[in-house]
Design goal:
The complex is a heterotrimer.
Chain A lengths: L2 H32 L6 H19 L2 H22 L9 H23 L15 E4 L3 E4 H23 L1 H11 L1 H6 L4 H24 L9 H15 L4 H27 L4 H26 L10
Antiparallel strand pairs in A: 1-2
Helix pairs in contact in A: 1-5, 1-6, 1-8, 1-9, 1-10, 2-3, 2-4, 2-8, 2-9, 3-8, 5-6, 9-10, 9-11, 10-11
Chain B lengths: L10 E10 L2 E11 L4 E5 L6 H9 L6 E6 L2 E2 L5 H6 L2 E4 L11 H13 L13 H14 L14 H14 L4 E5 L7 H14 L5 E4 L3 H7 L2 E6 L2 E6 L1 H6 L1 H11 L1
Parallel strand pairs in B: 3-8, 3-9, 6-7, 7-8
Antiparallel strand pairs in B: 1-2, 1-4, 4-5, 9-10
Helix pairs in contact in B: 3-4, 3-5, 4-5
Chain C lengths: L1 H26 L3 H26 L8 H20 L16 H23 L4 H21 L9 E2 L14 H24 L1 H11 L1 H6 L4 H27 L1 E2 L6 H14 L6 H19 L3 H15 L3 H7 L7
Classes of the chains: A mainly alpha, B alpha/beta, C mainly alpha.
Chain lengths: ~300, ~250, ~325
């Protein structure tokens, strides 16, 4: 296998990883601060993608489309938090799972009702289209490279938000002691709505960004949601740092596994069998990674020790 | 009571230490629980009593030191294994199956004692042996009238009694009781004091308790734990007279 | 005690309905109605399986599609080899496919039990929200595996042309196949009722409420839960084999997270931790799918709203609301 192909796969892995991080960051924040497991996070990803596709279709502007994705998903997130989610904070996880599962059904079918069952397409803007030449003779799509950069910028922004701002202090306090922040005079229900809306906005933004390299359709959110779950289980629930490291680990494992495992099996198997065994195993690679991490550390790499 | 120096301890810790980050919760703690005695463990809040109890009962592994039950080292065993070897424990905050009846809670204890919980067919409450053992324990704490009551409907005091009853079904070799008097009124406290007084003949009790009247009435020996360290062990009189104890602990209350 | 009898009466009425409705459909020559009833009974069986882990053990597994799918694929793999006259394995010894239901059931139950043992052993090292996410992830792992595994149809799934056989019965006759499924459901319900009252059930139920207490009487909550998870997986696997036989088709959809979610939904709609909760829930689910699905293509919206209302306002599910005894959960 050529080094160029390998380098491309590493970049693909990074791109998948940073997008997973943007998804997982919202999930892990919401769980860390409010103790809520939100299955409908994937729906917010989908809403962002649809909002972007609709606005891009109407205006032709990709940046406007991204802004619409962010605004729509954050607004839907805030609305859902106020109407449904805040009734769930003091419920057990089973209720949270069921209610947010119900939200998935409502959002998925609602979107199908509004937009129909056919996939929409969100085009990469011309100034980001085409390949770019990297050192070492690697040709890599400009758009995917942009995704990596944007994802890392978002990660940096989140770290700054949490470590440097007033809101960040409140979020960190909320993770440790809910009663204390109430005692400090912070309006908890407003804080929760803001945190949920931030998570929702990030998910919607990720949906719009990823929507340009795949089709925008109902049900696109859940596979990403489950990958994001794997990420926060590996990283440790509530840890943003853990989410970033785990997201990159998962992204790289998934893409490299798809290339390396079939190649590995070709060393001692007949080619077509090696491809089928290798790709079957590769499809399970990130889950095997998760199992290994759990055997080693049941609360994830950076989770609070139980 | 027999002379503690002449027999082997039922329960013993040797040099137990445990740190959480910068906090040393247990410092080289060596305690013995002799046959027939009630050994009270007292100390101010945050002295490390709960941490010590967890290390003895199995919820927490000490960083250093050993725990022995009837001369057998149990340091590496988990809570269920220690319970099967004869350690009966009650909790400071009642840990009971609240949706179940009082009898079901007691049968759970009997089931643990039977060593055969993995039976899938015959009804648990239909098993004569389990039932007899459970009812016997309920009678001893005076809860037989409430066997069919849902545990959530019991008063606080009755829940404390049920805690003790579940431990009794195990017929343990040693009891570890974490504040059994907590939240009881004077009457309830006195009744439980009387009961524990008789219980020591069956199996010795390591008693963590804040109720000083109960401690002074019951204890054969008292150990005082301050900042994770045993600063004194002795009879009630010795502890009362000990100047260190007075300044570190009793002085605060007097 | 009065509400207990009310629930028992309700259960008996439910059993009667499950006998009378298909009988009516048979007499009225409505085979489609029999098929609907069969689907409800099979899904109920899957739910009874999940309810042992969820209701009795408090284990919120979002990955039970894994066992449903394994049961289905056990049927599909064995039957496809039998219909193609190709052996399953030749070395080290010969294993042939089969079209015999009892053999298929046995294989489905064993395979899903082994999978539950492996998945449970790992997942039960964690608890709470980790457990939910991990079971979901393991289900998804098998979903992607079946999609990328070309031998048995991959993404497209696999058709079995003739329904498998049961000695002495014509399984192609809808009412006879219904009878088989109903009998299995009745047997498993009887087993589940015994299990709930058994020493194991008592200890498992206590471990859900207070694991600490169970430990201090010398019983390992981990072993209780793992056992419950395995039993639960086996029953759901059996349901998967029947479901595949009903449709004469298997596909990765059986493994999808939506399948896990739907099984959990009707357990909750009916009433969690109640013997007949999954049965009532499955019947309502199938009825809604049939009635609302006929009215609107978007019936999942109504299902979503119904589920949301039940979760927020009627935690005892339908049985709890009708018979008035709430199951406390906190």
């Amino acid at each position: 296998m050529s080094m160029i192909l390998l380098a491309e796969q590493v970049l693909n892995g990074l791109q998948l990883g940073v997008m997973l991080f943007v998804m997982a960051a919202g999930l892990t924040l919401v769980f860390g601060v409010m103790g809520l497991i939100n299955l409908a996070h994937g729906s917010l990803f989908m809403i962002g993608a649809f909002a972007a596709a609709a606005v891009a279709g109407a205006t032709g502007s990709f940046l406007l489309a991204l802004a619409a994705a962010l605004a729509a998903s954050a607004a839907v997130g805030a609305l859902v938090e106020v109407v449904v989610i805040r009734r769930l904070y003091n419920r057990d996880h089973l209720d949270q799972v069921l209610a947010t599962f119900a939200l998935i059904l409502i959002f998925s079918e609602g979107t199908r009702w509004l937009f129909g069952s056919f996939p929409l397409f969100l085009n990469i803007p011309p100034y980001l289209a085409g390949p770019v030449s990297l050192p070492g003779g690697i040709e890599y799509p400009m758009y995917r490279l942009t995704l990596i950069a944007v994802g890392l910028l978002i990660a940096l922004g989140l770290f700054l938000l949490i470590s440097r701002t007033r809101l960040g202090i409140q979020i960190r306090a909320g993770e440790n002691d809910r009663e204390m922040i109430a005692a400090l005079g912070v309006d908890i229900s407003r804080l929760y709505t803001i945190v949920f809306a931030i998570g929702a906005g990030l998910a919607g933004l990720a949906g719009a960004l990823v929507g340009a390299i795949q089709s925008v359709q109902v049900g696109m959110g859940e596979p990403v949601l489950i990958l994001a779950f794997v990420v926060i289980v590996i990283g440790g629930i509530g840890s943003i740092k853990g989410a970033l490291i785990a997201a990159l680990l998962v992204g790289l494992t998934d893409t490299l596994g798809g290339v390396l495992l079939p190649a590995l099996f070709k060393q001692f198997m007949e080619a077509s069998a090696a491809t089928s065994v290798g790709s079957s195993l590769a499809s399970m690679a990130i889950y095997i990674l998760m199992a290994v991490v759990l055997i080693w550390r049941p609360t994830g790499l950076f989770g609070a020790r139980g | 009571m027999t002379d503690p120096m002449m027999t082997d301890p039922v329960l013993e810790t040797r040099g137990i230490s445990k740190t959480f980050g910068a906090l040393q919760a247990s410092k080289d703690i060596s305690l013995t629980l002799m046959p027939g005695e009630i050994h009270a463990l007292i100390g101010p809040n945050g002295a490390g009593k709960s941490t010590l109890i967890k290390q003895i009962a199995g919820g927490l592994r000490p960083d250093a030191g050993q725990v022995f039950l009837q001369g057998r080292e149990v340091t590496g065993l988990d809570t269920p294994a220690r319970a099967r070897l004869g350690l009966g424990r009650t909790f400071q905050i009642s840990a009971l199956a609240m949706e179940d009846t009082v009898l079901q809670n007691a049968v759970l204890g009997a089931l643990g004692a039977s060593g055969r919980p993995f039976r899938f067919w015959r009804a648990a409450l239909g098993d004569k042996d389990l039932r007899a053992r459970a009812q016997d324990a309920l009678e001893r704490v005076g809860l037989q009238e409430h066997a069919a009551t849902r545990t959530a409907e019991l008063s606080h005091g009755q829940r404390r009694q049920l805690e003790v009853a579940v431990a009794l079904t195990l017929r343990p070799k040693a009891f570890v009781m974490d504040e059994p008097m907590a939240g009881l009124g004077t009457g309830g406290s006195l009744r439980l004091t009387g009961f524990l007084d008789g219980l020591r003949a069956e199996a010795p009790i390591l008693l963590v308790e804040h109720d000083m009247d109960a401690v002074f009435a019951l204890a054969d020996r008292i150990s005082v734990l301050v900042y994770g360290e045993v600063i004194a062990t002795g009879t009630v009189e010795e502890i009362r007279a000990n100047p260190d104890v007075r300044s570190a602990y009793l002085g605060d209350e007097a | 005690m009065i509400t207990m009898t009310r629930e028992t009466l309700f259960n008996l009425a439910m059993m009667a309905a499950l006998i009378l409705f298909p009988l009516w459909a048979w007499l009225a020559d409505e085979p489609f109605m029999i098929t609907l009833a069969t689907k409800a009974v099979i899904l109920a069986l899957a739910g009874v399986g999940l309810n042992i882990a969820l209701g009795l053990g408090g284990l919120v597994s979002l990955g039970h599609a894994a066992f449903f799918g394994i049961g289905g694929y056990a049927m599909g793999i064995l039957a496809s080899h039998a219909q193609n006259y190709t052996p399953l394995i030749e070395t080290p010894f010969l294993i042939e496919g089969t079209k015999s239901m009892p053999v298929i059931w046995l294989v489905a139950v064993i395979c899903s039990g082994l999978a539950a043992l492996a998945i449970g052993a790992l997942s039960l090292r964690t608890s709470g929200v980790y457990f939910i996410m991990i079971t979901l992830a393991f289900g998804q792992m098998l979903f992607f595996f079946t999609i990328s595994w070309p031998a048995y149809g991959g993404e497209d799934g696999l058709s079995i042309y003739v329904r498998n056989g049961f000695p002495g019965l014509n399984t192609l006759d809808p009412i006879q196949f219904y009878g088989i499924c109903f009998a299995l459901l009745a047997l498993v319900l009887f087993f589940a009722a015994r299990l709930a009252r058994s020493p194991f059930g008592l200890a498992l139920n206590a471990a859900r409420q207070t694991a600490e207490r169970v430990e201090t009487v010398g019983i390992s909550p981990y072993k209780l839960r793992l056992t419950a998870f395995v039993v639960s997986g086996m029953i759901t696997g059996l349901a998967g084999a029947l479901f595949a036989d009903l449709n004469r088709f298997i596909s990765p959809t059986m493994f999808s997270w939506q399948t896990s979610g739907e099984i959990m939904i009707f357990v909750i709609i009916g009433g969690v931790a109640r013997l007949f909760g999954p049965v009532v829930g499955a019947v309502i689910f199938i009825a809604l799918e049939h009635l609302l699905g006929g009215l609107s293509d978007y019936w999942h919206i109504y299902l979503g709203v119904l589920l949301l209302l039940i979760v927020l306002f009627a935690r005892g599910g339908v049985i709890g609301t009708l018979t008035g005894r709430e199951v406390a959960h906190d």
